[in-house]
Amino acid sequence: GLKKYRTALEDETKIHLYFKVSKLLFYMGDWEESLEWLTKIDFHEKQTSADGAICYARILKLLIYYELGESYFDLLQYEIKSTRRFLLKKERLYQVEDTILKYLYRLVSTSDLDLTEELYHKFKSALQYLMLQKFEESASSYLNLIHWLDSKMEKIPLQKVMIRDRETNKKVEK
After folding, report:
1. Does the structure show a pLDDT above 90 at 139?
2. What pTM was computed for the model?
């Protein structure tokens, strides 16, 4: 239906829709398809009401490149720098976003598996600390980065971590 009604949808609505579909595919581990949906988003420079989604989409794109493996690491290093410039220009480079960019850059800059594991743990701790700060939880929680890091550390699919944690939270609520 998107092809049929694309002209009837506002650009901001399309951006949010494409981002949500991409995010869902990322959670399912379908990184190539997730990236396809992100490429539909116009990462333009003009201000829109979808700026938040556009910024998160750029961060999601970095995570997808990371998941696609070493053949994408050179591109990922470039995209991290580009995303930093983009977020600075949009005045949306908060501590959480800065931390995400720093740790992703460190992760792609090492081939030492022990160091990678240590970086995952430090990355998670840094995000958990920042999420306690006022106004700093959005990017991390919106993209479920703690779950993503848990999946990396436990070496299980992100979708399984999210389902497990959801079931655990349901038990706690009862």
Report:
1. no
2. 0.89
